[in-house]
Design brief:
Layout (H helix, E strand, L loop, with lengths): L1 H8 L10 H8 L3 H7 L3 H22 L15 H12 L1 H10 L5 H20 L8 H21 L6 H14 L1 H4 L5
Helix pairs in contact: 1-2, 4-7, 5-9, 6-8, 7-8
Length: 184
């Protein structure tokens, strides 16, 4: 209830201008009830973000058995499908956090979560990175995925999570130039 109140206020008011009173009024609770659960609005926001990232990591861990092999061209990578399904399920939270980015560092934290997911994938597959430095590869995957998530949310999720995951899987399998139609 308190988290939902903050999410309702954020599209209308800058995070720095929101007070605990604003959140309590929106949630229809007393300030003392707010303070019984959170130290301040930053604690509330951190709690919300940590909860979503823990849930995402748990969902990925449940699909971990499918991460031991490369995906096929016609099946989305489990990492991408878990990511997009999770975002769709928690649409209001991600729309506010990614598009409005009230805390200033949410996108960088989400980027790190995506980066870690793929670092784990590379480790599980036992792949040796030779052609491109690993840091460059992980940055490319995480930043491009975050950019696609941003665009998907900004476009009101016109495509399904499955479609988004499949397209990112195909780009990853083909490489950018082959995906553009170049023969290498």
């Amino acid at each position: 209830m308190i988290s939902k109140a903050l999410l309702k206020i954020l599209p209308r008011k800058a995070y720095t201008e929101i007070s605990v009173v604003d959140i309590a009024e929106q949630a229809n609770i007393n300030r003392s009830t707010f303070y019984a659960h959170f130290l301040d609005k930053d604690d509330l926001l951190d709690s919300m973000v940590n909860e979503k990232f823990q849930l995402l990591e748990q969902l990925l861990a449940e699909r971990n058995a499918h991460l031991g092999s490369l995906p096929s061209f016609n099946e989305p990578d489990p990492i991408f499908i878990v990511l997009f399904e999770h975002i769709l399920e928690h649409d209001e939270f991600y729309r506010v956090m990614v598009l409005i980015n009230p805390a200033g560092n949410f996108n960088s934290r989400l980027n790190e979560v995506i980066r870690e997911m793929f670092w784990d994938r590379i480790s599980q597959l036992g792949l040796e990175q030779k052609e491109v430095p690993l840091d460059f590869l992980l940055d490319h995957i995480s930043f491009s995925t975050l950019g696609i998530i941003h665009k998907w949310l900004a476009d009101s999720k016109v495509n399904s999570p499955h479609h988004m995951a499949l397209q990112l899987t195909r780009i990853a399998l083909l490489g950018i130039y082959k995906a553009m139609g170049a023969s290498i």
